[in-house]
Design brief:
single chain; 310 residues; alpha+beta; Glutamine Phosphoribosylpyrophosphate, subunit 1, domain 1; nine-stranded mixed beta sheet; four-stranded antiparallel beta sheet; 13 strands; 25% strand; binds aspartic acid
């Protein structure tokens, strides 16, 4: 048995596989890698792994990280080209004594050394979107409805882990890193407390080290309250400083398998399963005094979200 939470509707299928593994007694990291690989391998998801949208030069560059909540070990890859499952590379890096965060060519060579096979990540569909959009290049903007997968898992021994995987912002500068592979910003987990993971505009999420902030708040607050306090206070600060807060969404789970989420956008979906539950797709909603509530996604909601993400 175990529990998990992951960003966006795209995590639904992988979450089912992950829960099956947890129910079969497998450890949290196996479940998490299964969930994330399911998305990385699916060519239809335009923001993660194979079929991800490319940078301005038409090259797909992937960012990913893994963190173990028991010993706080961490591995990350940034701007990794031609490797389909960066989460597996990040996991292996978390086992190294040093050199845990590799970028670009160094990350690629490490993956090859570990036996990963090179592969062209740009699908025909992503290439077409790239060519269409390059002609009307405007401000960089996180794509609506289908972004980074960020996931927290706890298993029946209470061992927690967190992971992320993304192709980052569409049409980003070559070599650009966002929050997703960065410990403390895109993800953080401590099995003594809980874990959190973010999605949205990396340049804003990094300013607040928001996943670390949420985990520290969970020492005294529920996951849902911790997400609300971190996202809404930080969004207000960004509004004061810059006149606007760009997209920020966060999911969190504590070591009892209780979960929460918060967002400063209207259409944030996520997948969650408490201990002993099947994963379900939820939509985040803002209620009275900005307190969050979560509704189960209806068939219509899912059809609408699928149209956005495929
Ligand atoms: N946070 C990711 C990045 O900035 C993108 C996303 O989650 O949409 O690269």
């Amino acid at each position: 048995m175990g529990a998990l939470i992951a960003t966006w509707l795209m995590a639904e299928n992988g979450a089912k596989k992950a829960i099956d593994l947890l129910n079969a007694g497998k450890p949290s990291h196996k479940a998490l890698i299964e969930l994330i690989k399911d998305i990385e391998d699916d060519v239809h998801y335009k923001s993660v792994g194979y079929g991800g949208l490319p940078n301005r030069e038409g090259v797909v560059e992937l960012d990913s990280a893994f963190m173990d909540g028991d010993d706080l070990s961490y591995g990350g890859v940034g701007a990794l080209k031609n490797i389909k499952n960066p989460i597996e590379v990040a996991y292996l890096l978390s086992k190294e004594k040093a050199n845990n965060f590799l970028v670009g060519q160094g990350a690629y060579e490490y993956a090859l050394d570990k036996g990963f096979k090179p592969c062209d990540l740009l699908s025909a569909a992503s290439k077409k979107i790239y060519e269409d959009e390059m002609s009307k290049l405007d401000d960089l903007k996180a794509y609506d409805g289908h972004d980074t997968v960020g996931c927290i898992v706890v298993d029946d021994k209470g061992k927690m882990c967190a992971g992320t995987s993304t192709s980052g912002l569409f049409l980003k500068h070559a070599g650009r890193l966002g929050d997703s592979a960065l410990i403390g910003s895109g993800l953080y987990v401590d099995s003594a407390i809980g874990g959190a993971s973010a999605t949205g505009m990396g340049e804003d999420i990094m300013k607040g080290c928001l996943s670390y902030e949420v985990v520290m708040l969970m020492r005294t607050m529920s996951p849902s309250e911790a997400c609300r306090v971190a996202v809404s206070n930080f969004s207000k600060k960004l509004e004061k400083l810059y006149g606007q807060a760009r997209d920020i969404s966060i999911v969190a789970m504590n070591n009892k398998g209780q979960w929460g989420a918060y967002s400063n956008i209207d259409t944030f979906s996520f997948v969650a399963a408490g201990y002993g539950e099947e994963p379900k797709v939820y939509l985040f909603k803002k209620g009275k005094d900005d307190h969050p509530f979560y509704t189960l996604a209806t068939k219509d909601d899912i059809a609408r979200l699928q149209a956005l993400q495929r």
